[in-house]
Amino acid sequence: MSIHYLEEDRKAKEIKRTETRNWLHEVIRMEGKKPGVISYIFCSDEYLVGVNKKFLNRDYFTDVISFDYSEKELISGDIMISIDRVRDNAANLGNDYLEELKRIMVHGLLHLVGYDDTTSELKAIMTGKEDFYLGIAREMIK
Question: Can you give the pTM of this predicted structure?
């Protein structure tokens, strides 16, 4: 199937869309799943906090929200990413913006695959997966 990139009120023009799509498909394959329809929706802090309030009853900023529509092995969903939050996080952590964006993109995808980060143990597993797949991204996206 396919991965789509959509933009609400922020653009993510810096990403290499085809290479990034190929990398994300590889992540799905390596997790033993099949890609369905996945949409990455890039937006502002204000837009995403509105979504957070409306759909999750949470009144705070976040970098990513994943809406999972997967069925068994077919991974589908919407992954909403605040470009503002990614930029701020990258600056605060001393990370490269594009590297941070890829981390958030794969983080959202890992939620669709079935990973959770609600406890420190689960978060450690998910961070390990992110690091592993970011290593693959460095090889695939030049």
Answer: 0.94
